[in-house]
Amino acid sequence: MGFGYRITISSNPATCLQRFEFPLNGQTFNAIGISSLDS
Q1: Which of 6, 21, 34, 37 could cross-link to 29 by cystine, CB 3.0-4.6 Å?
Q2: In a domain, 7, yes or no
Q3: Rounded to two decimals, what is the model's pTM?
Q4: Which long-range contacts (CB under 8 A, 24 or more apart) does 24-28 make?
Q5: How far is CA 33 from CA 15, 23, 30, in A?
Q6: What is the distance between the alpha carbons of residues 17 and 2, in angstroms, rounded to a whole number?
Q7: Is the dihedral angle over the CA atoms 24, 15, 8, 12 positive or is it negative?
Q8: Could you tell me the residue range of the domain that residue 20 belongs to?
Q9: What does the pLDDT look like over 12-39, one tens digit per residue?
Q10: pLDDT class for 1, splitting at 50, 70, 90?
Q11: Does residue 24 lie in a domain region?
């Protein structure tokens, strides 16, 4: 399980970030996404 999780994180760091940051700090992640798109 842990090993598979590591592979997922390494393969898709962006997806990992979304899955963790979004539920933990939806507003923060949303602000970052808006800033990235705006830039």
Answers
A1: 21
A2: no
A3: 0.18
A4: none
A5: 13, 14, 5
A6: 17
A7: negative
A8: 14-38
A9: 555 555 555 555 555 665 666 665 555 5
A10: very low
A11: yes
